[in-house]
Design a protein that fits this description.
Layout (H helix, E strand, L loop, with lengths): L1 H10 L1 H31 L3 E10 L5 E12 L3 E3 L5 H6 L3 H21 L7 E4 L2 H5 L3 H11 L7 E6 H6 L1 H14 L2 E7 L6 H6 L4 E4 L1 H4 L6 H16 L3 E5 L4 H9 L4 E3 L9 H10 L17
Parallel strand pairs: 2-4, 4-5, 5-6, 6-7, 7-8, 8-9
Antiparallel strand pairs: 1-2, 1-9, 2-3
The structure holds ligand C2E and magnesium ion (3 copies).
């Protein structure tokens, strides 16, 4: 029994060794099981993408979408990415999943365009491992080609920590992606190691303020200061700023007052399945943001 084992582990060094190897074995088995289910899921085409709108804070227009993966498992139901992406990363399956995402998004963009929908750029999350494998450039080109999608409709989200791991290689990889014509953003900004001198050299278009700062915006003065500082810095580097995870009107009002460019958060919409996002783009491509008191001309 785990509790007893834990107790004994505290009592004796030798038992603790046994306890932990046992537990590690269990975890390893769990992970191997998950990894093989994920491989299976890929073969059975069980992954789906949901899309969350990004709303421009001066016009209310939906200016982009972020594609977010889910696993529609026949046994587990809809599994969120937090529950399987880390295992996919450890098991090196992330590249195959990442490849699926790139092609699925381009295919979707083509189908939306064929339906006569006015499309907006779609952002894709690129995992560190996938990025460092250096195949991404080729895959992106292939997918754009295959589905005849203009590169400007694709945005790649990279994380700060990833880019700082090996800044010099990252910069050249980013530049090659940039040369294709896709745009790049730094995801979860503020949570990784920010070597600001490198940030200046990253050929990115956009910073996404991490939702941990946004959620504290109205009641934590430190978070407010951090968000303000990120927006100023982003502006002075000539980058667009988008705030992730805005759930309340109060948060959005502050972000609007600080001239944040755009919002992605539950307040406007949760990530939606394909059919629903399609309907939203058709019926409500522009949301009412009049309560946030910013008009088109401000912040220009
Ligand atoms: P992320 O890229 O930072 O994506 C934003 C996450 O914040 C999404 O969670 C989204 O649903 C959530 N979010 C957006 N607005 C709000 C809000 O107002 N309140 C709250 N509480 N949450 C909000 P999700 O879809 O569970 O994705 C989690 C993470 O999984 C993503 O974080 C990303 O790191 C990873 N992920 C998702 N799809 C992919 C993918 O296709 N490939 C890779 N490599 N990673 C992915
Ligand atoms: Mg993201
Ligand atoms: Mg994020
Ligand atoms: Mg994240």
């Amino acid at each position: 029994h785990a509790d007893i084992a834990m107790y004994r582990a505290k009592e004796s060094g030798r038992n603790s060794y046994q306890f932990f190897t046992h537990q590690m074995q269990d975890r390893l088995n769990e992970r191997l099981k998950l990894e093989s289910s994920l491989k299976q899921a890929l073969e059975n085409d069980e992954f789906v993408l949901h899309y969350q709108p990004q709303v421009d804070l001066s016009t209310g227009k939906i200016i982009g979408l972020e594609a977010l993966i889910r696993w529609q498992s026949p046994t587990l139901g809809l599994v969120p990415p937090g529950d399987f992406i880390p295992a996919a990363e450890e098991g090196r399956l992330i590249s195959a999943i990442g490849e699926w995402v790139i092609f699925a998004v381009c295919k979707r963009l083509q189908s939306w365009r064929r339906q006569g929908l006015k499309i907006v750029p779609v952002a894709i999350n690129i995992s560190a491992l996938q990025f460092m494998e250096q195949k991404t450039e080729e895959l992106v080109k292939q997918a754009l080609n295959e589905y005849m999608v203009e590169p400007k409709y694709l945005e790649l989200e990279l994380t700060e920590s990833l880019s700082m791991l090996d800044p010099v290689t990252s910069i050249s990889l980013m530049q090659r992606l940039k040369d294709i014509g896709v745009s790049l953003s730094i995801d979860d900004f503020g949570t990784g190691y920010s070597n600001l001198s490198y940030l200046k050299r990253f050929p990115v278009n956009k910073l996404k303020i991490d939702k941990s700062f946004v959620s504290g915006l109205t009641n934590n003065p430190d978070d407010y200061s951090i968000v303000k500082a990120i927006i100023r810095m982003s502006q002075s580097l000539g980058l667009k700023t988008i705030a992730e995870g805005a759930e309340t009107a109060g948060q959005i009002a502050l972000l609007a007052a600080e001239n944040c460019d755009a919002i992605q958060g539950f307040y406007f919409s949760r990530p939606l399945p394909e059919a629903e996002i399609c309907a939203m783009l058709k019926e409500r491509p522009r949301l009412d943001i009049s309560e946030f008191g910013r008009n088109k001309d401000r912040g220009a």
